[in-house]
Amino acid sequence: MNITIISGLSGSGKSIALQVLEDLGYYCIDNLPAVLLPQFADELKGRSHQSMTHAAVSIDSRNRSFLASLPQTLENLGKHGLDFQIIFLEADEPILLKRFSETRRKHPLTDDSTPLVDGIRLEKKLLAPLSESAAIRIDTTYTTPRELRSLVRDFTSGADAVGPSLLFESFGYKHGTPLDADFVFDVRCLPNPYWETELRPLTGLDEPVKEYLANNGLVKKMIDHIAQFIDEWLPQFEVENRSYITVAIGCTGGQHRSVYITQCLNDYFSARRVNVQMRHRELPESKSLPAAPLTLRRSS
What we know:
- The chain has 300 residues and is of the alpha/beta class.
- The chain folds into two domains: 2-157, P-loop containing nucleotide triphosphate hydrolases (Rossmann fold); 165-287, no CATH class.
- Helix content is 40%, strand content 17%.
- It contains eleven helices and nine strands.
- The chain has helices spanning 14-23, 37-46, 64-67, 70-79, 93-103, 116-126, 128-132, 145-157, 207-214, 217-239, 257-270, and strands at residues 2-8, 27-29, 54-58, 83-90, 136-139, 165-172, 183-186, 244-251, 276-280.
- The strands form two sheets. Strands 2-3-1-4-5 form a five-stranded parallel β-sheet, with helices on one face.
- α2 (37-46) links the parallel β2 (27-29) and β3.
- α1 (14-23) crosses α8 (145-157) and α10 packs across α11.
- The longest helix has 23 residues, at 217-239.
């Protein structure tokens, strides 16, 4: 039996994440008072012989009265012999402001004397312990509901896999750095296909761009060094029982260099370990096609 805790900022997609788990057969409770988690755990243990093996609860700023004691509550949960993992959702402040403005929903921490922006900032502080303890943090700033559902499904399906799950994500710096990245590699120093007129409208998934970058020694060297870094340090994260590692590759617009390098790294690690995932943040979902396999050099 294990419990998945869904938390995060209001407007970041927590309801969608909880719905995904419910569709996967989890027993789900929205806005369970955090102080009741140990009692809920006892009840689950009593039913462990039945078909219920996975449960999920949503804990957010609506739990404000119980958040101060949450670290102790989570510690007690472990003492009850149940495993738990936290999925924390977040998004950039301007995006959250826009979402609340468009939906005309009321933020749980706003009132006549607290404007929306102050409510969002207060919520970040209150939920910091959950964010810091999360097994995975998902930045939904540029994520569609469909992509979020896929990310949650991928994470839960890989939770029982041996070793941490690897997510490679391409992005464009002009759109902001992903909030959920554990490692960020800047590849803007590499030759940019954007300045080639015939390559500008294409992406790193198109053959002319792949050929342009594959034939450049600096690009090959960058890919090789990133792969070596991950190969060297990933075992240390396995020792620390990290379940999810996000590696973000960024170029200027997130269309050419970062996409190509992300695809190459995904191909390399997919051939060597299970539970490797990939996402191109700035590209339409329909363009997420596999890149040609790449042979990486290894230093002796």
